[in-house]
Amino acid sequence: MSSAAPDSSRIAVAVPELGAGEQTVRFLQWLVDVGSPVCSGDRVAEVLVSGIVFHVAAPADGVLVEIETASRTGISPHDVLGWIEPEG
Amino acid sequence: MPDGTTTRPELTAAAGALEVHLLGLVDFDSALSLQERLVFDISGRDDTRGALLLCEHPPLITLGREASSSDVAVDPDDLKALEIDVRWISRGGGLCVHAPGQLAVYPVLPLERLGLGLDDFRSAFEEALVGVCHEQRVPAKRSADEPGLWSRGGQVGFFGAAVKSWVSYHGMFLNVDPDPTFMKLGSRPGRDERVSSLRAHRLKPVSMASVRESVMRHVAKRFGYERHHVYTGHPLLKRTRRKVCLHA
Known about the structure:
The complex is a heterodimer. By secondary structure, chain A is mostly beta strands.
């Protein structure tokens, strides 16, 4: 999965440091579609760690323009899940 | 954000108290709405104040994000006859059968401000309920690899949580003294997955009140709360009313 910004103006939606220890982190699903407007703090995706669903929040206001994950794949902290084009 | 490299932290939440709400028998949707409201409230605070909801639910099957529809081994017509709904829920874990006699334990805690990562949270929570089982003379154990609690007779505790804005909700379900008829709905034919309860292990009735008291004490201690306040009910709880048939 890519971590380089395809466009410098875009903001990455990344997996935060979850404190998962040795547990596998799995991507579950996107909660918004590509092209949808999102607000900073909105829940946009779900990841799973050992019986716990973690809701990933949008880092900025804008539009979700690209996603980079396939469902149910193993992921690591700081992996980029998708990209937001900021407003304005 | 919690440091994922830390081992079990020495938890101290002296700046905030744990507010414990004893809700009694409450429908699942009402309890979930209250949890979401508390997540919103607690995520907007800057202290370590947390909430703990303790309740029981009418008969219901919930499926977490790790469940499959094939996990429901009961014929849909039979479930309809028993008036048991099946619901998909945004929590971890698999299938869980809820019924009166099972204690739902919902900690709504600011994990980031408590310095807890997700693995720390599950460990501390499960260890708290292991302590509860030991107080009831049931030698339950947890596993680092698989969420939940097990005794010799089978699984007595189900874990399935969620974290939003670094605040936990959903939680664990401890089988205290549920009707075994409902618990059997969670067993899948051909698989060695037995469901048990504290009563089944003790071979005599177990007081729900004593389990509730033990849960609030152990959860407060494990998460570092020096004070906890106990309330019956919650002003924002909106109950719905539904007739539930429980066969004698």
